[in-house]
Amino acid sequence: MIKFSEGSVVVPGEAVAEGKEYRIGQGFYRVGEKVFASRLGILRIKEEDNFIYLVPLTGVYNPREGDTVIGKIEDFHSLGWRIDLFCPYSAMLMVREVPGYVPAGELDKVFDIGDLVCVKITKVTNNKMIDVSMNGPGLFKLNEGRIIKISSQKIPRVIGKQGSMVNMLKDKTGCKVIVGKNGLIWTKGEPKTEIIVNEAIKMIEDLSHTSGLTDRVAEMLDKKMEEYNKNKG
C-alpha cells in the first residue's frame, strides 16, 4: 500500500509505502516491508511496474544525458566553446554541434564570452566530462529576456506534471519560457510580464514543498495579469 498520492512531497524518514511488491528507486530505503524516504522530494509512482522513486528537492545539479540546460560561454578555442553550466561542472560545445557554417578563427563572432545559450547534454563521462549540442529544436543563443536562477531540485515543480505548470506560465502571461534542468530559467515578453513570471517562479521555488501549488500560482498570475491589463489599457 502506498500512503501518498503521485506528486506528494515527502520528508526524510517518512513511511511512504508498505509491501514487498514495490520496487524502489532513488530517494528510498526499505526496513522489512516498509519503505521510507531518505530525502526531501516529490513522489513519483509507476503503477504498471509497481515502481516508486523521488524527485529530490534539495542538492546540486547532476548533469545527465538528454537534459536541456542554460549555460554561459566562458572560453573558446579552435574546436569550440567552453560553457559554464552554473554547477560544479562545465561543458564543451564543439563547432560541429552548432547549426550553420562557423568560419575558422571567427568563433567569437558566433558566440562571445558571456553569451547565454540553451543547449542539450549529449554525453557525460564517468569523470564528468560533458558534451553539449545546439542541433535540435529550441536550442539557440538567448537574446534579451530575463534569467532567473533557482535550485535545480525545484525545477520539476516549475515544469509540473507533463509540463502543466510551465505551460500555465506561458499561457497566462504570453511570455516565452525556457526551463533549464540546471536551475536557470529564461523568460522573454513584455518587461512587466517578465517580472510577473519571475515572481511566479520564485513563488513556486519557495512553496515547492506544499500541496495545491498550481491553484495558488494560477490565482496569483490571474490577479497580476488583471492589474497589468487594466493599467496598460
List the helices and strands and how they pair.
Blueprint: E1 9-10, E2 15-18, E3 23-24, E4 28-31, E5 34-37, E6 41-46, E7 51-56, E8 68-77, E9 80-84, E10 90-94, H1 107-110, E11 116-124, E12 130-133, E13 146-149, H2 155-159, H3 164-173, E14 176-179, E15 184-188, H4 191-206, H5 213-232
Parallel strand pairs: 3-7, 10-12
Antiparallel strand pairs: 1-6, 2-5, 4-5, 6-7, 8-9, 8-11, 9-10, 11-12, 13-15, 14-15
Descriptive key words:
OB fold (Dihydrolipoamide Acetyltransferase, E2P); four-stranded mixed sheet; alpha+beta; single chain; 3 domains; 15 strands; Ribosomal Protein S8, Chain: A, domain 1
Task: Summarize this entry quickly.
By secondary structure, this protein is of the alpha+beta class.
Task: Walk me through the structure.
The strands form four sheets. The protein has a five-stranded mixed beta barrel. The protein is of the alpha+beta class and 233 residues long. The termini are far apart. It is built from five helices and 15 strands. A hairpin with a 5-residue loop joins strand 11 and strand 12. It has three domains: 9-56, RNA polymerase II/Efflux pump adaptor protein, barrel-sandwich hybrid domain (OB fold (Dihydrolipoamide Acetyltransferase, E2P)), CATH 2.40.50; 68-133, Nucleic acid-binding proteins (OB fold (Dihydrolipoamide Acetyltransferase, E2P), Beta Barrel); 146-232, K Homology domain, type 1 (Ribosomal Protein S8, Chain: A, domain 1, 2-Layer Sandwich). 24% of the residues lie in helices and 32% in strands.
